[in-house]
Input
Amino acid sequence: MTAATTLELLDAPPPDPLLPGIGLWPWCFAAALPVIALIVWLLLKRRKPVAVDPRKIREQARNEAGAALDAVKTTDPRDAAVRSSLILRRYLSLAASDPALFETHEEFIARHDALARLNENARAAAGEGFYRLAALKYAPAIPQADAAAILADSRRLLDTLHHGFAA
Output
């Protein structure tokens, strides 16, 4: 047999040689970050907001509404009234920034500041036109009306609303 060996506890070797080296790149990134933020801030500050022409928005909304009214091909008066009302309300939401698209007929009528950007004649025509459309939409029986006439009335109301914006 061999000589008896003694058990001696040795210190653990240091882990430093096993760790990867970090180098200088994190410090360079940390130094460049404020410079990049400053450049981005200066670029955003120099950029001017685009001026929005409300007449262009109204004209585009009118063209879209006119095309949508022309595209309605129905003989059902209730369907014509529902579609016309939706098209006209969408026009008002775009052209006048009015929440009419998201309101019921009762909410629209009850709101005292409805269509504040329109002149008095256009507001009266809108109230009357939407009242007729609501009567057709919510009638208990299918109304005896001509769908083409409903669409033509809606086209006239669209023109009245479009020309009714206060200068």
The mean pLDDT is 85.
